[in-house]
Amino acid sequence: xxxxxxxxxxxxxxxxxxxxxxxxxxxxxxxxxxxxxxxxxxxxxxxxxxxxxxxxxxxxxxxxxxxxxxxxxxxxxxxxxxxxxxxxxxxxxxxxxxxxxxxxxxxxxxxxxxxxxxxxxxxxxxxxxxxxxxxxxxxxxxxxxxxxxxx
Length: 151
Hints:
The protein is an alpha+beta fold.
């Protein structure tokens, strides 16, 4: 009886560990994007790490007009603050062709949502999971005196 209980308990533990290991195998591009968004808005680098391939590149222009270039691990360190960000986030476009995808994600914040980032994400399905392979982004001021170029 004790042996049967031990075997059942062991199987449950192994199953839970396997489930936890595969819990971030995103089956859709949206799941990977949502993990990224959750990580950025909650300041949790682990969520960003799960969403991006290890070799992913992150490049963007910030609010000062400065160009930034990071690898995934550098970007995770930038994000991993634990600070919550109350931005309105929307996936404004998502194109999927079999195992490749491209998405536009818009972040808006401020009293009148006058600040924003437009992220362009490329994603790939590697046979097991969807992940972000690259991100390019641009800060945009949404004040009345500023226009977003839609070329």
